[in-house]
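Example complex used in Figure S2.
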Amino acid sequence: MSRSLLVAASVEEALGELAGGARAVAGGTDLVVGARQGKAPLPERLVAVHRLAELATMEEADGVLRLGAGVTHARVAADLRVRARLAALADASTIVGSHATRAQGTIGGNVMNASPAADTVGPLICFGASLRLRSASASRTVPLEGFATGPGTTAAEPGELLEAVEIPLPGEGAGSAYLRLDYRRQMEIAVVGVAALVRLDGGRVADARVAITALAPTVRRVPDAEEILAGTTGGADTLEALGEAVAAASRPISDVRGSAAYRSAMAAVIARRAVQAALERAR
Amino acid sequence: MATTERPRTFVRPDGIEKVTGTGRYTADLVLPGQLYAKFRYAERSRARIVRVDLERARSLPGVLAVVTHEDVPDVRYGHMVQDRRLFARDEVRFEGEIVAAVAATTPEVAARAAALIEVEYEPLPPLTDIETALEEGAPLVHEEWESYGGDDELGRDRNVLGRSVIVKGDPDAAMAEADVVVRGRYVADASQGAPIEPRAVVAQWQGEKLTVWSSTQVPYIARSVIARVLELPESHVRVIVPLLGGGFGSKCDFHFEAHVAALARAAGRPVKLVFSRAEEFFAPDHRREGMVIELETGARSDGTIVARRGRLLLDGGAYCGEGGFFAQMAAMHACGPYELENVRIDSSLVYTNRQPSGSIRAPTAPQTCWAVEQHMDELAEALGLDPVELRRRTLIREGSESPTRQVFGPVSIRQTLDRAAELIGYGRELPENEGIGIASAWWPSFGGESGAYLKLNADGTGTIVTGAQENGSGAVMGLPLLVARTLGMRPDDFSLLYQDTDAAPWDGGSSGSQTTFNNGRAVVEAAVEVRRQLLELAAEELEVDPGDLELADGEARVKGAPGRGVAIAELAGSGKTIIGKGSGRVPDAPATAPDPGCVGRLGMESFLEPQLMTHAVHVRVDPDTGVVRVLRVVAVHDSGTILNRVGADGQVYGGVVMGIGQALTEATQFDDDGRQRNPHLLDYKLVTASDAPAIDIEWIETPAVDGGPFGAKGIGEPPCVPTPAAVANAIAAATGRRVRRLPMTAERVWEAGR
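Predicted assembly (1037 residues):
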């Protein structure tokens, strides 16, 4: 048994290694920690992409914020554009794991790991983010929504590297929030999370996105909840109905972190609070 | 004594190396030719071993030794019951049971080899529930229990590993006549010590002599058991403890030292074992025991408690380990520091096919106190009395008689209650969903043999050679304060030499909050001997009577004649041997009823110099999610004279935070087969620094009459005892609902509110 780790000096070198069957690693906060915990052994062949400057850029152009896949959660959380215009993403990036996780872990890793509990993915889906994927032979852009196909699995082709996450910046009147049920103030993982984006027009919700985290096999939107919000002022009755819709759309499991019944009940509570926070930010 | 200085900014000698990362722990040791150990665990909770095949493991390149029960003497060990072998022979009884061990050139090869060992099992249904284990006809965790050596006082019977019954008066008749009777059933989950350092052992043989470096809290006890199970003279075994990264009791007792020694002998090379975090959770025979606590208390309308009946079941797990005394300790806490006229407490420690329970900081006390103090609040409610007022009327005072007829000396628990209530602002209006809860508790001081040497060096400094073990609490680090105080020198004039069983006198180790209490006495006695030698030398030098001299400010000087003296450094540098030794007289256990109305008398039927305390906790509960935030904790303690304020405060800060974890988030969860479901720090939820509330500490100092140095009692364990109870009462105050499961997780608080 042999094991290899190549620290890539260029994207091309990384792509070559991926084409040969390697798995990419950046912060290692899922892959390495998971291996130590016995979830899955480390892949035999690894290519480290954490030193690639091309993956660590943050650029805004034509109303789109392009986050290199190697940008850490800490950088996302501290970015003033993100805090002002993509508040839900700032919320999520601020609470991923621990200080150490945020210093090492990357937004690209959070997306590619495809955990149902990934904090940044719900906000990114709400913002309509797309993914820039590149292999040794081709490049393509795909929507993030639908990219995760199950816990730990994605629609990425073998040999593809996530280069960047492209996020259209929401226009005037938008507000967003990501809220998570936390048992303690640090080092948490989502048991229930809800991301919300609303755009208000004349005090009414012109457009709404709601996504759930750790409540289904993948992070996903809840169209019923979005419909309930649309056209309303987001009053108490609307939020009540929205909470019920989110709970109904949830497919929670029972595990050491909480029972399915508790998760369902909390889905409604956290959804109401997340949408409430998004509405307040939009006003 | 020269000075009564009690510094608040004392810098412990091991502080800088620990916080700067230069400190060396057991896992940092590297010996030439060292191999790496890996254990093959049962990974199931109950099965008969049919066949073990080591061939594939042995033939893996890089493997130098594979050992099983066949390679060590057939000796059973265990503190109060000898019920365990180093390696499973016929049957495995919990998931962390060790079937075989491997030593190889790298940790990876060792792990692969361990996985290549083939073990064929005949599965047996595991016994994972304490109440089922007591049923008629339940399978026995140890079929041959009667043949085991053990303490006769334990009252062992089938799956009951130990039983304690405390009886006073006629509780049935008194209960029948009580004005008010309340009943409650409380269930506590198991939890863990979770030290930051996973344990490590390095073993090296030189001929017939064995040196073991181990992250143990109790090196002398570890040495004894290593010698016993490997059938070596104790003098052939030397145990050294490099810096220890915490233990919270979980590193008490002997653990894996002999397994690693057996590997090192078989391989002919030094062998190192370093646990993963998961192993640190499931493999040691140490966790805080799960409990079922049923209480019934009758009172007169004025609050006088006329009767208490209680039934306690403790999950002892698969082996006794060092936890054999738990039934009695729990029974004492089911009485609590209260005046009870009539009592019957029946407490059983029960074998199950789960990880063995063992001492974790104040074993059995936080859970039992959590139940008793909620029960007291419920009694207050039934009586229409304020909970603080009920406690004021019923807590012990000087002259009170305990259920085992111990008569208490000066005790200040009521003062801790009053002061805690005052500091938290008890009774004031609070915002919605907030509440304040109060809980009082006690914990004994433990007298025990302990020893130290003190020598002065030629440069005028001193070295304390102590048998005591520093587990992180700072107790050993505080010893220079005691010596300096006796010799009129500065604390940083003294270095510490610990812990090497070949160098220092015997000590019970870092357990039972006993280091300052017992070893403190020993070092003071050693210092007094040095003091006498210094005064004699100075008397000769100054040509005065030793009785006219005092030691202060680093010199021996004539009392009342400033300027007439000689520096201690000068005396120490004279070439004379200046060395003192000490042990001190061990205080006697207070007398109790001679009548054996009590079963299971293991030495805890009286509480020597009890430490007394009250915590007051202010919480906010999110009514929709059940998430509880602790906003503020007031901790008022009487631990006798406080010798090192910064160290004592540190114990309370840490204990309170540990208590909050026990209260709200920390639980080891088991699957139906008795295996741990969350043996890692993501889902075993410790409280983080961000969760820590404001903590206000106050000390009521009632000097111990027959205790530690200068009237000190212990302090290490009890700070975590009343916190879960106070949090529980605060939750009830905030929500109007009681949570009778520990930990009181968000989900359980939410359920209680539905």
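Chain B touches chain A through 26 residues (CB under 8 Å). Chain B has 18 helices and 27 strands.
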